[in-house]
Amino acid sequence: MEHALPLQTHRLRLLGGEVDALTPAGMLAATEAFVAGGGTAVIANHNVHSLALLATTPALRDFFDDADLVQIDSVPMIAWARLVGLEVGPEHRSTYLDWREAFWARAAECGWRVFHVGGAPGVGEKARQAILERHPGVQLGEHHGYFNVQGLENHAVLRRIAEFGPDIVLVGMGMPRQEQWIAANSRRIGRGVFFPVGAAFDYEAGVQVAAPRWMGRVGLEWLFRLVSQPARLAYRYLVEPWILTPAMLADLRAAATRR
User: Fold this and answer.
1) Mean pLDDT of the chain, nearest integer
2) Residue 124 included in any domain
3) What angle do CA 15, 53, 80 make, to 5 degrees?
């Protein structure tokens, strides 16, 4: 993007993509620095699903290459990184459900104006109410994600976001739609730190039930989600990871070279 990183990060080549060894605290510090610096920035996140999509969605690779920071949103990714000798640990998992309370507290404290776009009509308002009950000082706008991202509806959404004057834009449209939308529209809005956040506001609104955080910490969140939505997620969790076999072999060769 157009400005230098506000902190030193350790970027890793992992499973065919690149990620930053970034803790949630480091992510929040970076967010604060990006907001203070003005302009736009992107703090993305990689998980096994996004890495598999890189093979079939070339534009998605451009998005991650251009991102200012890329969080590791996967305990299995961290376990694999450690197996191949990379300097990363459990503290480098950085995902919305783990840092949300610290984020909203910081948003209230710093006076950040946060806008969320995504989710079904009505979900964003329920999520907004839930967040404001916990953090009443937050300035939060929202718009659903059920609009034509190529047409006049998109222009109307962009205008609404720009009029709100966001410091942070959370985009929850699912992969790869949310990343593609950010790539196409962040500079048109002209300001804000952009986060792709998937189903974050579905969890806030109670539309989806989040896995217990202990399952996230031990790398079993995927199993909870698979059992909850088997028809939708069976391919993602049982078949899609095998797409990464060539990337895993490349990581093993790189590890052998380092030794």
Assistant:
1) 93
2) yes
3) 20
Q: How far is CA 37 from the centre of its chain?
A: 21
CA-nearest of 74, 85, 77 to 16 is 77
Tell whether the torsion through CA atoms of 17, 251, 13 and 46 is positive or negative: positive
Domain total in the chain:
1
7-22 pLDDT, tens digit per residue, is 666 789 999 999 999 9
**Quick check: is 81 in a domain?**
yes
CA gap 172, 160 in Å, rounded: 17
5: in domain: no
pLDDT of residue 1: 44
Q: How many residues does the chain have?
A: 259
pTM of the model: 0.94
Q: Can you read off the two tokens belonging to residue 256?
A: 């052998």
Strands 11-14 and 17-20: antiparallel
